[in-house]
Design brief:
- The protein has three domains: 34 residues, no CATH class; 317 residues, Methane Monooxygenase Hydroxylase, Chain G, domain 1, CATH 1.20.58.480; 31 residues, no CATH class.
- 56% of the residues lie in helices and 2% in strands.
- It has 19 helices and two strands.
- It has a two-stranded antiparallel ribbon.
- α4 runs parallel beside α7 and α4 runs parallel beside α9.
- The chain is globular, with a radius of gyration of 29 Å.
- Heme-dependent dioxygenase that catalyzes the oxidative cleavage of the L-tryptophan (L-Trp) pyrrole ring and converts L-tryptophan to N-formyl-L-kynurenine. Catalyzes the oxidative cleavage of the indole moiety.
């Protein structure tokens, strides 16, 4: 705040009104560089709707830039040695932002579709050889999420990088995005460190296999006991198909073969972690990881919707037979990008294939319940903004699993854990006191 007496000393009236321009500093127009942004819509024809076409696509590119910015920051957080609750909250917030931006991008087609095919024909021929296929930011976004080159549909029998051959800076950025760990790769590494997968501890995978074998045995017996022949055949076919699916995740060689074929993305242990989070998502420490897995599926779903809207708009504007302005097969090429091969987090969608009824889910033992409980009160250093764990952690890359359990307390310097009966009695006493207070 400026001093009014200083103005009086300078010969100015301290009571005089000051306009916004009197204050020093950067103004709105210069801060946003609006002269450059608003002056970049250079139409090459006199067609009225060309201006809309340019503005919509420039808006897409700005949103692509923001999503890349968010994805890069999330990748950086996942690449750190520790990913605790505080960082997970930030990761979730940024991925939620990406999801909202993608929803906006999907809806943006509605504005573009106010342009009719005849309106588009007025300037379409002047666009060649420009094409949306040449959006290098969208390629960067795909690569940073985790889309593999071998999963892409060939562009005129060439690699997608062919169209950027005359721009070494773009080619270098794309090459770097392919070589750096993608979000999918970092997610897989993070899931591998899920607490409870250790063979010497809770050993979720062994317990899960026992539960699957038990459930499948029950299905087999039900099928064999069925008297109606056609129903028996149907039930037995279902049992065998489901058994094949379960065998594909319990046999590491089969799983790795599916990864090599591009049908799965997560490592074998990463898949185990994702399944464990899905089963025990209601436990405090798995709540945030489960939110993240859902957000990643949202990203895949919304990108697929964006591709679909693009396909439908192209078909509406130029039909199914004309070539694209960049020389691709237009509608036919775009439609081929809607397959599952373009889904980066396809394994997360398929987790439901391997879920079991709640009554068949292996129960958590007391130690795992303690590890997955919420963290107790932060110490003084944590309150000052430093992330300090009061106990050593055995999973440095995942959310804290060995932080103090709220049920633990100290009595005469020795650790004392309340028994289940003590907890039940305490709960009953609490309920009784509440009832008395309300009477």
């Amino acid at each position: 705040m400026s001093c009014p007496y200083a103005r009086e000393l300078n010969g100015e009236d301290p009571n005089a009104e000051r306009c916004l321009g009197d204050f020093k500093g950067i103004n709105y127009t210069n801060y946003l560089q609006l002269h450059g942004i608003l002056g970049s819509q250079n139409c090459i024809t006199s067609a009225h709707d060309e201006h809309l076409f340019i503005v919509v696509h420039q808006a897409y590119e700005l949103w692509f830039k923001q999503m890349i910015y968010e994805i890069d920051s999330v990748r950086a957080l996942f690449n750190e040695e520790e990913v605790n609750e505080h960082k997970m909250l930030e990761i979730i917030k940024r991925m939620q932002r990406v999801v909202l931006i993608l929803k906006l991008c999907v809806d943006q087609f509605v504005i573009l579709e106010t342009m009719t095919p005849l309106d588009f024909m007025e300037f379409r021929d002047y666009l060649s050889p420009a094409s949306g296929f040449q959006s290098f930011q969208f390629r960067l976004l795909e690569n940073k999420l985790g889309l593999k080159s071998e999963s892409r549909v060939r562009y005129k029998q060439e690699t997608y990088k062919k169209v950027f051959g005359d721009d070494p800076e773009i080619l270098e950025a794309i090459k770097q995005s392919e070589e750096e760990p993608s979000l999918q790769v970092l997610l897989s590494r993070w899931l591998e460190r899920t607490p409870g997968l250790e063979e010497e501890g809770f050993n979720f995978w062994l317990k899960y296999k026992i539960a699957v074998d038990t459930t499948q045995e029950e299905k087999r017996r039900e099928a064999e006991a069925e008297k109606v022949e056609h129903m028996k055949t149907h039930m037995m076919a279902q049992y065998k198909r489901r058994q094949e699916l379960f065998d594909s995740i319990f046999d590491v060689k089969v799983h790795n073969a599916l990864v090599a074929r591009g049908e799965r993305r997560l490592s074998h242990r990463g898949l185990q972690g994702a399944l464990m989070i899905s089963f025990y998502r209601e436990n405090p420490r798995f709540n945030q990881p489960h939110q993240l897995l859902n957000l990643l599926m949202d990203v895949d779903s919304l990108i697929t919707k964006w591709r679909y809207n693009h396909v439908m708009m192209v078909q509406r504007m130029i039909g199914s037979q004309l070539l694209g302005t960049g020389g691709s097969s237009g509608y036919q090429y775009l439609r081929s990008t809607l397959s599952d091969r373009y889904k980066v987090f396809i394994d997360l969608f398929n987790l439901s294939t391997f879920l079991l009824p709640r009554n068949s889910v292996p129960p958590l033992d007391r130690q795992m319940k303690s590890r997955l409980s919420t963290m107790g009160e932060p110490d003084s250093e944590e309150r000052r903004g430093k992330v300090v764990w009061s106990r050593p952690r055995s999973e440095p890359g995942f959310v804290s699993s060995d932080s103090p359990c709220p049920m633990d307390n100290v009595d005469n310097g020795e650790e004392k854990v309340s028994s289940d009966s003590d907890l039940e009695k305490s709960l009953e006493d609490s309920i009784e006191r509440s009832c008395e207070a309300s009477m």
